[in-house]
Amino acid sequence: MSESKKPVIEMDWDAFDPWRIQPLKHSLTEHPLLQTEQLVELGKRCRGTKRWYAFNSDVTAGTDFDDAASLFPTAKSAVDSLRDISAAKAWVLLRHIQADPLYRELVDAVINPIQPQIERKDPGLYYRAGWIFSASPNTATPFHIDRSHVLLLQVRGTKTVYVWDADDTAVCSDRARDCFHMRHDLSRTLWSEEFRQRAHVFRLGPGTGVYMPLTSPHMVETSDESSTTISFTYNTDATRRNAKVHVMREMLYRLGMTPPDYGRNHVFDRAAYAAASAIVVCRGPGGHPPACPSLLHKSEYAVAD
């Protein structure tokens, strides 16, 4: 698809706010690369890499996302689960599909036409990536946050997406985001059933989707049918600044200091960003960089970490 053709994603770009949740529509439901046979082939190419992640349908909203695969292993391999996801009782993620030449073209075909619209309000787009989720009926994606802006597109089946505002600290505290940006640590991002009352709820079917800003908490539940979803993620100059301030805040906490609430003291945030930028160049405290390679590499495509 060339940039001159109609964009795959349709959104109200005049109303677009990079820090606010927004519904969208898309035209990917019949794309050849998103049909079962091609997903199985992609799964085969991901064997022996870190580019797939799977767990079984016993996972709940409150399961620790990072431990789900070890605590709830699938009965079949990821490839076999993809082959018959409706009966697999599994959740399979194909990560960083942009690392595959065929799927990199798909990522570009989606992002390139809308990049000018995004950058009108959120300049400096970089670190684009793609993720494909296949889930059996009645399967949950645990409550978590992500380190990029997310365009989530439903391809097959139906699901319910619960997503909370990026600044809702009652659901996910500043400290939880600090830990996440510093070490991809979700131990402070904890689920409570009471959160459902505060959520934006989207009942997604094929051709629909939702835009979710950086670290917007979210949780997903499939219906009585299996589901295929694809997400396109990216970072910008603003997400980079946000993440670096959170990294600096976490470093201060570890030194016994308590920084002001995020976004409440602009002088502190500017100083924290400058300090974190210098530290990241030196690869972080003790020679270890923060969790997300996007803070080290302002590359066009995400690094398959």
Structural account:
The chain has eight helices and twelve strands. An eight-stranded antiparallel beta sheet has the order 1-2-10-7-12-5-4-3. The protein has a four-stranded antiparallel beta sheet with strand order 6-11-8-9, with no helix packed on it. The protein has two domains: 228 residues, Cupin (Jelly Rolls); 58 residues, no CATH class. Helices cover 30% and strands 23% of the residues. The protein has 305 residues and is an alpha+beta fold.
Question: How would you briefly describe this protein structure?
Answer:
Pfam families: JmjC_2 (PF08007). The protein has 305 residues and is an alpha+beta fold.
- Order of helix and strand elements from N to C terminus: EEHEHHHEHEEEEHEEEEHH
Number of individual domains? 2
Q: What would you give as the CATH superfamily of the largest domain?
A: Cupin
Mean pLDDT: 92
Helix content class: 25-40%
CATH class of the largest domain: Mainly Beta
- Count of DSSP strands: 12
| Largest sheet properties | 8 strands, antiparallel
